[in-house]
Structure formats: C-alpha cells, structure tokens
C-alpha cells in the first residue's frame, strides 16, 4: 500500500472522529439520505479516494463556483487545496512524489470533484495536470522528471496541453506548428494552438509540433515531436489571447501564438519524430477522465433536480409526484449508472493493460472512447432534465443547474467529438469502410 494512500487513510480516520460530513452523491450533508450513485463494486482504494477528495471539495461550496464562473476567476485556492493533500500526483509514480495509483482512481477523483458542485470548471482546473503528465512520466528523461514532476505535484507549476490547432481540428496528423531545430540543438517554435485550457496560469506546456515537414515523411504520423516547454511571457515570440466561452468560465481557454519562440534541446520528450506515438499514451487516459467528469456533472444535476422535485409544491403536491417529472429523472439516473459501468470498465482495462500483455491497446481504445461517449450523453440528458425540472428557476444562477447545463456540452465536444467516436467504432469494431 502506497505511503500516499496510508496518509489519506490516517487523515480520514482523524476526520471520522469529528462531527460527520458525509458525502451523499452530489452534496455534503449530515442527513441519512442514501447516496444517489450506487457505490457497489468499487474497490476500497477508489472509495477512499472518493471520501478524501470529497472532504477537500466540502471547503468549496456552490457559491464559490458561482462567483468564479461569473467573474471568470481562476479557482487557485481549490487547486492549492488539492495540491496540499497530494492529489495532483494521483496517477504519477511514487518515486517522483506521486501517489502511484491508476487511472481508475484518477477517474474517481475527477468524478468526485465535478459531482461536488465544482462541475467541469473545477475538474478542468487540474485536468491537464493529471493526464498530460502521463506521456512525460513514461518517456521523459531523468532530468525532465526530477525537475518538473515534483513541482507539478506540489502545485508550484501548472500545466497545459498544446495540441489542437484552428486549421487542423481533430486531424492531428496535419497540424502545422513547427519546431525548427537550430545548429546548437535547440528549437524555434512557430505556429498557433487553440482551446488551450489554463494557459494563462500555466508554467509548462506539453507541446506537440512538427519537426519534419509532412511532405518529407513516409506516414503522416511520423515527424511529430513532443516537448515540455516553459511558458515564459517575458520571452519574445509568445502571445496568448483568452477566448470568451459559454461555460466553465472559471478556467481560461486560449489561442496561443508562437513566432520563433526559442526552447532548449532538453525540452524534447523521448525521441524526435515519435511524438504522435508518445502522445497516444495519454489520450485513452484523458477519455476516462472526461467520462468521470461528465458522470460527476450528471449526478450533481440529477441530485439538484430530485431535491427540487421533492420540495417544490404545485397544485398542492410535490411536482416529483407527477410521472411527467419523475420518469425523465429516473431515465437519466439509469443512463448515468450504465455510463458509470462503462467508464470504470474502461479505466480498469487501461490500468490492467500496463502489466497484462493479453489486453490489446485497440480494445482499450474502444472501451475508453465508448465510455466517454456514453458518459457525455448521459450527463447531457441529466443536466437538461434538471433545468426543465426547475422550470423558471432552472434559469437562475443560484440553483446551479444552468451552470451545469452550460458545462455539459464540453464532454460532448472535447477532446474528440461524438461523431468521430462513432466513426472510430464503425471502422474499428464493425469493420465498416472508413468515412473520413
């Protein structure tokens, strides 16, 4: 059992001797109401993660997230609180100061954060710290790991992920940002990235750029390289522009422009030209994390809706007594529970594939993409029905469901669209002709 896990158990034991702050599905409460999400089948470690992270989240009520959303203010206190208890290194090696746990536990952490009321904004404030560091931890040099990972885990440095481009979108192999090698071995980066979350507050970027022109490689997947770079705002050649967006306003999204931005030779992660293969290591992990975040958001919305349906009286009875209200919520619950099973199956498969050679990576990809799709759709249904259950008050900021609804579109779009997942399943599982 890891030292990190023993520390969390010790902390939970101390807390349990104090007045109870039990976590019940989507809210912190001293009531005895049964948790909304069934926790049957989870491991002791996953449930410990859920309880411990819940106690951190309890310090940040919905009003905190309402204010951060309205003011577009980074939740730095929340990030610091998670860093203080070591959660930013949940899936990183113990040798580097991490917890040494798996993506299964990291997914549970991300779900718990979103479910607490923090929503996608809370989850996205640490999202890249968890998954974008996976390729670095696996392929980085000793010097990179020792100088970077501990500072990320401690919260000193925050991380963003620089892959998406405005003219390439999901066609990653045709991105055009270049990293041109210089005579001294350093590189100069030129190009544009878009939808880069937390770039305004990040110290480091995991950057994918082309080091060999597309026309000079045998396959489009070749010639891309991965870098861990400093975001030095005082250095020439770097510009950021914040994007105004619909939801998750507490975390910034950006266009990032590079113009001969100099980075040292030791920024390169792994072998030059093998960046696409390296980055694949983190993509399936990200799908699991996104699925967990979507689940958390859905359960949070459903919890708000069912509470309102029990307490809101119209025509001299609770509106939840009407099947027109109750049945859509029951359906949303079953969708979330089904997506939950798919999500944790995918995360378990991802973790097991690290040591079990019989688990094929294409099977992991199918499971992770399917989980992300199903969780995103279940969250959307739950959030939409939560707004409709509240009626006019669903439009009011103080009831939170309008914020959840704005945020629930993110898992449907990113990091890969619903349509591209359907394309993937059609081709890889059903053996249908490729459509793109």
From TrEMBL:
The lineage of its organism: Eukaryota, Fungi, Dikarya, Ascomycota, Pezizomycotina. This is Acyl-CoA dehydrogenase. Residues 43-156 form the Acyl-CoA dehydrogenase/oxidase N-terminal domain. It comes from the Eukaryota. GO terms for molecular function: acyl-CoA dehydrogenase activity; flavin adenine dinucleotide binding. InterPro entries: Acyl-CoA_Oxase/DH_mid-dom, Acyl-CoA_Oxase/DH_mid-dom_sf, AcylCo_DH-like_C, AcylCo_DH/oxidase_C, AcylCoA_DH/ox_N, AcylCoA_DH/ox_N_sf, AcylCoA_DH/oxidase_NM_dom_sf. Its cofactor is FAD. Residues 273-429 form the Acyl-CoA dehydrogenase/oxidase C-terminal domain. CDD domains: ACAD (cd00567). Keywords: FAD, Flavoprotein, Oxidoreductase. Belongs to the acyl-CoA dehydrogenase family. Residues 160-260 form the Acyl-CoA oxidase/dehydrogenase middle domain.
């Amino acid at each position: 059992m890891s030292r990190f896990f023993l520390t969390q158990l010790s902390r939970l034991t101390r807390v349990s001797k104090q007045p109870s702050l039990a976590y019940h599905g989507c809210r912190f409460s001293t009531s005895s109401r049964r948790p909304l999400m069934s926790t049957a089948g989870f491991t002791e470690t996953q449930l410990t993660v859920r309880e411990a992270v819940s106690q951190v989240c309890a310090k940040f009520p919905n009003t905190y997230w309402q204010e951060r959303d309205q003011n577009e203010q980074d939740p730095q206190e929340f990030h610091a609180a998670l860093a203080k208890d070591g959660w930013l290194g949940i899936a990183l090696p113990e040798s580097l100061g991490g917890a040494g746990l798996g993506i299964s536990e990291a997914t549970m952490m991300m779900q718990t954060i979103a479910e607490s009321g923090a929503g996608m904004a809370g989850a996205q404030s640490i999202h890249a710290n968890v998954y974008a560091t996976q390729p670095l931890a696996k392929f980085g040099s000793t010097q990179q790991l020792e100088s970077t990972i501990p500072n990320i885990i401690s919260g000193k440095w925050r991380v963003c992920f620089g892959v998406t481009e405005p003219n390439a979108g999901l066609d990653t192999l045709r991105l055009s940002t270049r990293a041109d090698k210089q005579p001294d071995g350093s590189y100069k980066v030129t190009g544009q990235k878009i939808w880069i979350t937390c770039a305004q507050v990040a110290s480091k970027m995991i950057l994918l750029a082309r080091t060999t022109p597309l026309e000079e490689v045998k396959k489009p997947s070749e010639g891309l390289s991965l870098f861990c770079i400093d975001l030095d705002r005082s250095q020439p050649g770097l510009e950021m522009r914040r994007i105004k967006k619909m939801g998750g306003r507490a975390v910034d999204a950006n266009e990032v422009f590079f113009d001969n931005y100099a980075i040292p030779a030791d920024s390169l992660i792994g072998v030059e030209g093998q960046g696409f293969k390296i980055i694949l290591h983190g993509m399936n992990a990200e799908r699991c994390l996104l699925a967990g975040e979507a689940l958390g958001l859905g359960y949070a919305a459903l919890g708000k809706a069912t509470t309102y349906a029990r307490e809101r009286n119209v025509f001299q009875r609770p509106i939840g007594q009407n099947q027109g209200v109750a049945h859509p919520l029951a359906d949303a619950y079953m969708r979330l529970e089904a997506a939950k099973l798919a999500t944790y199956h995918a995360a378990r498969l991802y973790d097991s594939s690290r040591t079990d050679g019989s688990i094929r990576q294409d099977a992991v990809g199918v499971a992770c993409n399917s989980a992300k799709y199903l969780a995103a759709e279940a969250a959307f249904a739950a959030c939409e029905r939560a707004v409709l259950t509240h009626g006019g008050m669903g439009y009011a900021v103080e009831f939170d469901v309008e914020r959840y609804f704005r945020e629930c579109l993110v898992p449907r779009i990113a990091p890969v669209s619903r349509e591209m997942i359907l394309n993937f399943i059609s081709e890889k599982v059903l053996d249908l002709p490729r459509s793109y």
